[in-house]
Amino acid sequence: MNVEEFRAQARDWLAEHVPREPLGSWTSPEGFARHRAWERVLFEGGYAAVDWPREYGGRGAGLFHTIAFAEEYYRAKAPARVNMGGLYLLGPILMRYGTAEQRGRWIPRLLSCADIWCQGFSEPDSGSDLASLRTQAVREGEEFVVNGQKTWTSFGGFADWIFALVRTDPEAGRENKHRGITFLCVDLRSPGVEVRPLAMVDGTKGFAEVFFTDVRVPVANAVGELGEGWRVAMSTLGFERGAVFGDHAKYSADVESFAELVRARGLAGDALALDELGRLFVATEVYRANVYRLAELAEGGADLDLRASVNKLYWTEAQHHIFAAGLDLLGGLAALGGGSPVLREALTPRAAGIWTDWHHRYWYARAAMIFGGTSEIQRNIISERLLGLPREPRR
């Protein structure tokens, strides 16, 4: 089936299946359960991972089919996806580094959302310098005994499993801190695991910190070679930083929402507001063109790892600019949450709903410029590794 035929099919399917009522915030237990049920509907319809191989539950389609589905998905205003850790990070890692047994055990369950996965990389005092992590995994026979702590774990409060970086060879780490690290999958229901939700600045609890106290994990749960987890982690960060093919459509939809806010504020004829709208539109169109270019390169076999930092820098800063522009447009109203009667009186119902959503996403957009490597780190990677410029002096 060609891309446009698939697009038409996907549009019809979404029109029939997208929930008519909002599912609520995924950061609440009830909202997360509803989002998880929606993920199951996507899986049963064959739309959970369009470009994944058929043997793993995908359609075996191309990246341009994935892009077409994403564009239709956001056009249909379908619910936010909640199994990103499994779909966009762990799944591709298992296909690249996992054993046949690991792929068969984990991939079908993460694709159907039977298992929710979270990422355990960051630790206290080990943020941008990820290789300084201190969580230890000591081998005892065919098990590791894990002790340590992970923090800022996205979806951690709702996840069933975590893929974590642990230090399995401290001696190798003394010579080179990037060595002796292993990529390990841990069942969060194991004895000795404690998950503590973290309250964010907007009051939501979608993140968590995870504590490991003498947690026993099978050695067979290590992905890739023991002690070579840094290489696996860099691939994971490449997926996290890179283009989630089709995600540009989300930002194009946000620009349309910004236009609605402009109209609601009575500024449809204001030169400054229209200039800002035009700037945001151009930025999202540039990103869309880049995603299409990368998809063409990827389908031709190109390695996109180095270009991932370009994407990370662009999409995180672009989405922040969209929400910051909305904040400036609303002025003092921007401080009000969606439940405020003042906000509802000042805006149209649709515009008030947009800002209710954006009120949360503005703060998340600021965090996006930090997680997965800060914008400053991405600029260093681009300059040194992609452009070949002199390295920044290290102390």
UniProtKB/TrEMBL annotation:
Acyl-CoA dehydrogenase/oxidase C-terminal domain segment(s): 227-387
Domain Acyl-CoA oxidase/dehydrogenase middle: 118-215
Residue span(s) of domain Acyl-CoA dehydrogenase/oxidase N-terminal: 4-112
Taxonomic placement: Bacteria, Bacillati, Actinomycetota, Actinomycetes, Streptosporangiales
A Pfam family hit: Acyl-CoA_dh_N
UniProt KW keywords: FAD, Flavoprotein, Oxidoreductase
Cofactor field: FAD
InterPro entries cross-referenced by the UniProt entry: Acyl-CoA_Oxase/DH_mid-dom (IPR006091), Acyl-CoA_Oxase/DH_mid-dom_sf (IPR046373), AcylCo_DH-like_C (IPR036250), AcylCo_DH/oxidase_C (IPR009075), AcylCoA_DH/ox_N (IPR013786), AcylCoA_DH/ox_N_sf (IPR037069), AcylCoA_DH/oxidase_NM_dom_sf (IPR009100), Mycobact_Acyl-CoA_DH (IPR052161)
Domain of life: Bacteria
Record protein name field: Putative acyl-CoA dehydrogenase FadE
Cellular component aspect of the GO annotation: plasma membrane
Entry similarity comment: Belongs to the acyl-CoA dehydrogenase family.
Molecular function GO terms recorded: flavin adenine dinucleotide binding; oxidoreductase activity, acting on the CH-CH group of donors
SUPFAM superfamilies named in the record: Acyl-CoA dehydrogenase C-terminal domain-like, Acyl-CoA dehydrogenase NM domain-like
Presence of the UniProt keyword Metal-binding in the record: no
